[in-house]
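Note to self: keep these together.
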Amino acid sequence: MFEVYFVYIVEVELSDKNPHNRIGESRDSKIKRREPKEKEKYGSFSKFGAGPAGLLLALFLSKEKIPVHVLEAASEIDGQPRATHYGPAGVQELERAGVLEAIRAEGFLPKDLCWRKENGNIIAELQQEHIPLHSRVTSLPVNRVAHIILDALRHHPTAKVDFNCKVIRTGQDDDKARVEVETPDGVKTLEASYIVGSDGASSTIRKTLFGDSFPGRTWEPWLIASNVYYDFDAHGWDDINFVIHPQNWFMAARITKDGLWRVTYGEDGELTREQCIERQHERYRSMLPGNPGPERYKVANISPYQVHQRCAEKFRVGRFLLVADAAHLCNPFGGFGLTSGIVDVGGLYDCLFGIYNGLADESILDKYDEVRRQIFIAQVDKLSTANLQRVMMKDPDRALELDPFLNAAANAKKDPEAAARLAQMARGANSLKHDFRQYYTTFNAESSTSE
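Structure:
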């Protein structure tokens, strides 16, 4: 038996020009499966962490009737305000998993994004309407996306989800990976063919593999993620706004249809978490259009957190694998953390699908490690860093002169197609993807299988 455990704590470019990669068509529907070798017919997949990335991987696998067990340390899905926007590469994976329609039904598709000066004047603007619908940025708070995926997962009998399961230690041999977990019923030892750590920035699975080593750096300022009801529309603001200023830089983005906005801004890293929260009213008054007092808005929640740019030494150690925040971290400006994590999932699913169906050997997981790490280092880290540095620019009046991307965005206003290409580029639509099916040892594009 082949099973995967997922532990939670807390792209192939799809093109209409490729008949085997059409949007809405499973990338596996053109692959001829062969019966797995006898040595492959064992175990399960286990996954630790019940966030959207881990649940999505579990959904992909369970839809193929591959046994998967999700373990979450907490008693429920984390409800803190975190990521909200899913870029084109991630949107395509959500569609492949069959959950995009439900996510968009509850969330929404932002129309425009822009960069502004502190006084609200627009520096550059990008419209989304010329981007194909299947690739448009989609917005919904990450906790709601996790619930939608969890609901879908419950329809698949090969999937099991357990909360209140805390990892104590891990181990592995040539045939199995294992974990000891604390549960409400006592300590249990669980075994699986592979164990996937998707347990977030403080990943227990990663720490059992590498200790405290997590190469990279921490940004000096706090980031304050807040959800607020405020009438940005009265001030003519777009759905996504980045304000450039050396001190009062922030992002304001509509995240739900009922008028909830995400406002994310920076605070001095020397302040305590409590001091950051106490300063929220003062910061809103100095930053937001109309300089509102607390009587003019309603804060739904607020969460200060430290921001990192980090990447694990390896995404595979034997039968243990890492995805999403357990594997790498970046700042949230541009949505690269969440989007790249979802694309990790799509790639790892293709690898595990290939192994399970005898289309690939285990060396494909080394390719997953190599390629996904390189994409993070060369693309995600650099692009997300540039996005945050852009809003911190010391001289907003010279933004078009100093920043080639903003200059291109401003010039693209007269060319809708160029603007659409630039908007997709800004979200890493193509650069985050990789087709791991090319490493299958058995591939027949003329054969099809059931979903």
